[in-house]
Amino acid sequence: MSSSPSLASMMNSPLLSKSDSARDEEAGPYTATPRPSPTLSKSLRKISSYDDLVMEAQLHANQQHYRCAAIQVAISNVYEKIQYLWHQGPPSLEWHLVVALLVWYIVGLGAIVTTKILLTEWNVPPLLLTLQQFIVASQLLKLRLLLSKSGIAPWPWNNESKHQLQSNAASPASLNMNATEISLTNSSSNSMEHTNLSTSDTSTSGSMDFLLTGLFNSLDLLATNVAFATSAASFVETIKSADPITTTAVALIWKVDRLESDEGVCLFVLVTGMLLSTWGNASNEESPSMASSTQAAATVMTANVCFAFRAMSQKLYRRHAEQPMNDENLLAKMFQVGAMALSVPCLIVYASYLSHALEAPRELQLQYAKLAGANAVAFAMYNLASTYVLSRLSVLQHSTLGCLRRMFVAIGACLFFGVQLEFFGIVGLLTSFGGFCGFTFYRAQRMRREEKSAV
Questions:
Q1: Predicted pLDDT at 107
Q2: Residues 126 and 119 sit within 8 Å (Cβ to Cβ)
Q3: How far is CA 384 from CA 75, 129, 340, in A?
Q4: For residue 26, how many C-alpha atoms fall within 13 Å in the half-sphere facing its CB?
Q5: Measuring CA to CA, which residue among 403, 406, 393 is closest to residue 447?
Q6: Cα–Cα dist 311/386, whole Å
Q7: What SS3 class is residue 326?
Q8: How would DSSP label each residue in 76-128?
Q9: Are the C-beta atoms of 235 and 281 separated by less than 8 Å?
């Protein structure tokens, strides 16, 4: 039995000990194995054949084609969307609400700033300034209505009288009838008379609701201007952020809403923040004493109560009126009602003030006219946006959104007028905002539960 060669003997073999070049020389010139260069081997590993190169080029071409096709589809979709929006007309109600809220928040700050300047730097009496705002803003809205397609709407009682005349003209009054025709006519006339009475009652109720809306709106704005004349704008807007309290109180008294315990706790937190803000404001220059701050707070709370009744009356007018006016006509008529209610007291109390103002230098009158015009434009836009939001949302939703707006205005007024909030004022703002957020959250939860139980 032959023994197999060991590993050491194999390693010491002359064939393995020689290098590759030596073995090639011993084997002869025709038996040498060709060895490719390193660069060629790398390129062959990347692209093994011409077919792979062609496939790679086609893949790049297809990717470019797909990108171009995707860009063309995106451009066509955008073009179709633009065409759809162009033929669809104005944007949807949600976008209208967003724009109205932005105008309500931003333009409202300009209206408050210009009002504060007129009351403090120009020393315009609050009653006279309120009348001026009503007159100029109503004329601006009437000009806007004349240029629009809707036009100026008649007063609600004019619609009522026209409806009564039309019903009387349409009633049967023929004398040449037989007995059957007379009996049928009497029965139909009785039913028509009952319908006309109910319709006239509804129209009368709508007219009364409209009149109350205008009067409460006038008292609200007058009380707000009185508070602006005696206290800081940030303080007034902080107290006005308590709108949900007065609105809920009016709703509970009229039994159109109810309040749960969680909502009551959040309202208490909001009131606490309002009191803290009042205490923090007592050390400011514009309200140096606690008594003046309390008086200003009472004036603003009166304005809040008037706004709550104005909001309720406006909702009732929308419900009872046969042909309710649009928001622009409604606001213009409300301003006219306020102007008629305040014109006589202004002429009696401030007759000498008006005569001295007319004798002022022309340059001073021009400066005042520019500022008053800017204030009237901002005042009209701000109240129009508020009326638009109130017509499309509930009273409580409007008041909670107004609470957020007043927080925004309070901070903006502090920055503009350089009013430094004290520690308790800042804590009051944050506390009121927390109470507002909690109240809104629990109210929304309750509304969802009621909707689910109703379904």
A1: 92
A2: yes
A3: 39, 19, 20
A4: 8
A5: 393
A6: 11
A7: coil
A8: HHHHHHHHHHHHH-S--HHHHHHHHHHHHHHHHHHHHHHHHHHHHTS---HHH
A9: yes
Residue 259's contacts (CB-CB under 8 Å, 6 or more residues apart) are 248, 252, 267
Give the helix/strand (H/E) hosting 67. Answer: helix 50-88
Q: Left (φ > 0), alpha (ψ -120 to 50) or beta: where does 395 sit?
A: alpha
Instruction: Please report how many Cα atoms fall inside a 13 Å half-sphere around the Cα of residue 409, on the Cβ side.
Output: 31
Give the pLDDT confidence of 152-197 residue by residue, as tens digits: 999 988 765 555 545 554 444 443 444 444 443 444 444 444 444 4
Separation of alpha carbons 355 and 360, rounded Å: 9
* Structure-token pair, residue 8: 């050491």
H/E stretch holding 444: helix 423-454
**Whether 285 contacts 304, CB under 8 Å:** no
Tokens of 426: 């800042």
From the list 380, 310, 311, 335, the residue with the least C-alpha distance to 110 is: 380
Report the Cα 127 to chain-centroid distance in Å.
29
CA distances in angstroms from 418 to 122, 134, 147, 284, 412, listed in the order given: 19, 29, 41, 11, 10
Question: Rounded to a whole number, what is the largest CA-CA distance in the chain?
Answer: 152
Helix 126-147, helix 93-120: angle, nearest 10: 140
Which segment of 89-93, 312-316, 429-433 scores lowest on mean pLDDT? Answer: 89-93
Separation between Cα atoms, residue 394 and residue 311, nearest integer Å: 9
Q: Are 303 and 220 in contact (CB under 8 A)?
A: yes
Query: Which residue reads 């430094």 in tokens?
Result: 420
**Using CA atoms, how far apart are residues 68 and 135, in angstroms rounded to an integer?**
61
- DSSP state letter for 152: P
Q: Are 434 and 404 in contact (CB under 8 A)?
A: no
More confident residue, 328 or 204: 328
Q: What is the pLDDT of residues 47-70, one digit of tens each?
A: 455 566 667 667 766 766 666 666
Tell me, yes or no, if the pTM score tops 0.70: no
- Could you read off the pLDDT of 136-146 as tens digits, one per residue? 999 999 999 99
Tokens of 387: 């009326």
Q: Is 248 exposed, middle or buried (0-12, 13-18, 19+ CB in 10 A)?
A: buried
At 102, the amino acid letter reads: L
Amino acid at 191: S
